[in-house]
Amino acid sequence: MSIANIQVPETPLVLYALRRADDALILGHRLSEWCGHAPMLEEDMALSNIALDLIGQARELYSYAAKAEGKDNDEDKFAYLRDVRQYRNLLLVEQPNGDFAQTLVRQFFYSAFADLYWRAMMASRDATLAAIAAKSEKESAYHLRHSAEWIIRLGDGTDESHARAQAAIDHLWAFTGEMFAVDDSERGLIDAGVAIDPAGLRDRWLKTVTGIINEATLALPQNDWMQQGGRSGRHSEHLGHLLSELQSMQRTFPGLTW
Amino acid sequence: MVTALDSDAELRQRAWDAAAGVVDPEIPVLTIADLGVLRDVALDGDQIEVLISPTYSGCPAMNMIALEIELALERAGFHRPKVRTVLSPAWTTDWMSEEGRQKLRAYGIAPPQASSSRRALFGEQAVTCPQCGSGNTELLSEFGSTSCKALWRCKACREPFDYFKCH
Q: Hey, are the CB atoms on B147 and A134 less than 8 Å from each other?
């Protein structure tokens, strides 16, 4: 038995909302994998709370995508009934948790971006997106502070924690460029004042990231080559495994409700 | 019972009073009016609509609060009341009433401070212990038992306590 995927006509606005919703959902899901497994109780609660914020953001964005689409899709169908190639999230957020350092470096790179991005998006001409941005930027400020403190503690900690943090930075760096990329679909929204151009945030992002990495006695790679693909559905092998867990109930028991 | 003799203003006031008594399921000393979550009450014909602002995007208490509002309005004689969530302007702890802050402190949770310091990446925060009133406190964890709280410890009385983060 197979459950049909929903079909989504990706108008620029629908695609835009799905991309940001997918970022938040996938990263939220990754963080929720730590629930019950984090190195200490405080971090277990912190990562679960950040996951909760992100999944809340995803719900708002999915609901808006459904409204913009005007079909009978809703937040649950977008989350549970699209396959890997229909997901539009950044490659960065789907990367496995790895060790604690890898989780926190991934969170730091993303939160430093999300914080700037949502603050800028508060000026969107789209009232709903501006409202979602206003809520999200408050939350991302705390997410950034949490992860930045950990980067410093890990980098400037023991030899072991330093080596692990540096390895995580080296591994994840190539996935950061995608955050600032824009395609034709999104360019139209930027020109219309609905979206903002993320490329304009890169210098400030790099300044924040460099400042914390330096304070942590860590180093950014010199490698400028960046891997892309998530925004158009070309994902790493990890996303399929994540979705198989995230979607298993709806795929096994179609239409299941609480 | 709601009768046709009631004026619109009276109906709205009665609906507001009913909704305002709903408490936060996770901090039961605070009502949604204390929190600033209850924003407005609108009357459309004979149907009442209550507008609320979510605290955090993923706050699981919001669904329960919406349900409790509907039940409270039904009990007050309003049939099929609606609850609508408004995102803009975004909820802020600045909307928390002074009475709400005092109730929080008496309950053992340090109330939120002015939101101006939130932006600082590593801003110095000074939170007063709700138990003994000492300012000699330290942050244990940025995230506490719920999204809206952080975990602190008082170095004077040695008691850990929740701090309702400014937002």
A: no
